[in-house]
Amino acid sequence: MHTTATAHPSAATTRLKPAPVGNKGVLVAGVIMLSWGALLTFLLAFYEPNWRTPWPYLLLLLQTHLYTGLFITAHDAMHGVVSADKRLNNGLGTVAALLFAFNWFPRMLPKHHQHHRHVGTHDDPDFHDGHHPGFLPWLARFAWNYVTWWQIVLMAATYNVLKLSFPQANVIAFWMVPAILATVQLFFFGTYLPHRGEHAEHNLHKSRSQFRHHLWAFMSCYFFGYHYEHHDQPYLPWWRLWQAKETAAR
Q1: Can you tell me the distance from the alpha carbon of 192 to that of 126, in angstroms, rounded to the nearest whole number?
Q2: Which residues are 226's β-sheet partners?
Q3: For 17-40, what is each residue's pLDDT tens digit?
Q4: Rg (CA), the chain
Q5: What mean pLDDT is predicted for residues 84-91?
Q6: Fewest CB within a 10 Å sphere: which of 14, 44, 142, 182?
Q7: Is the pLDDT of residue 172 over 50?
Q8: Which residues contact 240 (CB under 8 A, 6 or more apart)?
């Protein structure tokens, strides 16, 4: 497979045609949410980790990947590509966002569209402050813009409830840590790498993409690293972004 970069995509990128969402978006969202719930139930209620083996760490990473999938599902719902039925689309987006550390979909929705309208400017809630573009300061600003006090309260309350019924180590390792790692993963691959630094004048979306390697793009962030393609064609669900990358590489 070729791994050509698109750090400076052409403004004349060939676009894929929008396609009816049908039931596939709902099916994909359902698989991600049910997989997240089923694995978490197993890890909390039945799994006895042996920390001297690699298996609990691999399961932690798998749960992190599914956490990331929850946010990507909520993100797709923000673009209306989970279901053509608006109520179902927004309902699934709300559930997915709540499962990911009690994020509130109605609050995230206008902020995300503001990001698309004002990408890479002072009006972009996902962008750095213009003075501190380093990874950690940018991450801190990103978290400040999105994390609310009631999320922290709900996470703390849920943690204290869960540890009454399940081993505390399991709750920390498989419920809390994956949420934190997925947040960093989403920021790194979906905000920091695509939008950092300078962009060519013809780069309308002030975004860049990962190299074309579909397996890595899926594992790293559900193809969200193909970020120019996402900004250029926001009507594509995450599972079609690899096709946009293929089209751009021709």
Answers
A1: 9
A2: 209
A3: 888 888 999 999 999 999 999 999
A4: 18
A5: 96
A6: 14
A7: yes
A8: 16, 19
| pTM score | 0.91
The pLDDT of residue 11 is above 80: no
pLDDT at 3: 38
> Can you tell me the distance from the alpha carbon of 37 to that of 243, in angstroms, rounded to the nearest whole number?
29
Name the residue with tokens 């550390």: 101
Tell me: pLDDT of 14 over 90.
Answer: no
